Inverse folding.
């Protein structure tokens, strides 16, 4: 479960770094439970985003941001 969360964090960070937009990523928090994980992204500004459910266990999140916060990559 933790490896899957780390993989999602890495994928989300890559998406955030590759896009240009109106918000800056300021923090990423992860909490794990027995049956679910929660990932919280905090932004300076209002992000533009889209999401889709890939299957019953996976969600894709596409977030526009105008720069990468160097501290955010350390969370991965």
């Amino acid at each position: 479960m933790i490896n899957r969360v780390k993989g999602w964090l890495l994928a989300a960070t890559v998406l955030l770094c590759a896009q240009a937009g109106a918000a800056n990523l300021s923090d990423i928090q992860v909490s794990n439970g027995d049956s679910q994980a929660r990932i919280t992204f905090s932004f300076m500004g209002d992000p533009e985003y889209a999401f889709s459910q890939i299957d019953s266990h996976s969600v894709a999140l596409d977030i526009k941001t105008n720069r990468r916060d160097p501290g955010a990559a350390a969370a991965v």
User: Anything to note?
Assistant: Residues 2-74 form one domain. Strands lie at 24-32, 37-44, 48-55, 58-64. The CA atoms of residues 50 and 63 lie 7 Å apart.
